[in-house]
Task: structure prediction
Amino acid sequence: MRGEGIGSAILAATLAATPVPACEVELVLAMDVSRSVVNFEYDFQMGGLAAAFRHPDVIGAVERLPGGVMATVTQWSGPDAQVQAVPWTHLTDAASIRAFADRIDAQRRAFFAAYTAIGEALIHAERVSATNPLPCARRVFDVSGDGASNRGREPLAVAELLAGQGVTVNALVILGAKPDPADYYAANVVRGPGAFMEVATSFEDFPQAILRKLLRELAPGGLAEAR
Result:
């Protein structure tokens, strides 16, 4: 009996130390602002992202999730060029979601650097994730980009480490560069539970692609085809 009491006490202490999810999805939206992304393409990205969050289907998807979504936006480029551009926001209803979209519209471009450091962008996303004030049942890093990494730590090693911690690393790839960025992201970036890649044929296609991507990421239980 005494042993059972000790075991029960240890179990109770363990459960007390384990954070209880207060929201369904943590979403880090990491947006490429390297020099290959000219200003009008940056506008397609950010304007499309804001419009997607104002879409009634996205609002409905968030409202159906227990505890809603904790979301933030980062901008990334070279090894020393990453910033959290939109702070953590708890999305629970139409008002909070539209306010988040307004913050996306209001942000300024932080960098126009020459390099593309996807591994560093993932490391930065993990650092930002550590500041999320609400524990969430799922952690999703949503990386948008138009080319292969050419500086910093190799993204594959970082992505696999994150996947081992239960993080889903998804990608939205904008086509057009050589080598094919879709092949590169599939091989080196997309990792973790239910991870997937969405493809935009051009920056003009980005708004529809990010809408499709968000609806998959916000589906109940994170329903997505594993890669």
About this structure: The chain has a mean pLDDT of 88. The chain has one domain: 21-221. The longest helix spans residues 2-17.
